[in-house]
Amino acid sequence: MKIVFDTNIILDVLLIREPFAQMSINLFDAVVSKEVDGYLCATTLTTMDYLVAKRQDKQRARTLVGQLLELFSVAEVNEVVLAKAVLSDFSDFEDAVLYEASCYAGVDSIVTRNGKDFKTALLPVFSPDELWQQIQQGINK
After folding, report:
1. How does DSSP assign 20-67, residue by residue?
2. Of the chain's two ends, which shows fewer C-beta atoms within 10 Å, N or C?
């Protein structure tokens, strides 16, 4: 199953944001073990670089982005994705871009802690707990 990881899930892991970090780490482990095919929106990578450079340093930020690129595929952001995001009924443009990039990449679903922000999505949207439960039940193998 191809899953786009919302930026908040990645931040939970990289910044060890409690109480969310452990579940997000579990989902990362599922990507490492190939139980799911993990995708990141291209904008997530630029956001990670900016935030980590600001909180730590530029070299650490680039190292983390490189590690994410080794682990995840990228849902690209291009003119088609941006045009659809502009016309979408999402209230948040960043979420609209992530959603349209997900659709463009042909993924199966999105995992986020902000499911309410994706209420108009046609793709399935899972919370980390919901996705983890499905992985544990073996549905995604």
Report:
1. THHHHHHHHHHHHTTSSEEEEEHHHHHHHHHHHHHHS-HHHHHHHHHH
2. C
How far is the C-alpha of 8 from the C-alpha of 109, rounded, in Å? Answer: 15
* pLDDT (tens place) for every residue of the chain, 141 residues total: 999 999 999 999 988 889 999 999 999 999 999 999 999 999 999 999 999 889 888 999 999 999 999 999 999 999 999 999 999 999 999 999 999 999 999 999 999 999 999 999 999 999 999 999 999 888 544
Domain containing residue 19: CATH number: 3.40.50.1010
0.90 surpassed by pTM = yes
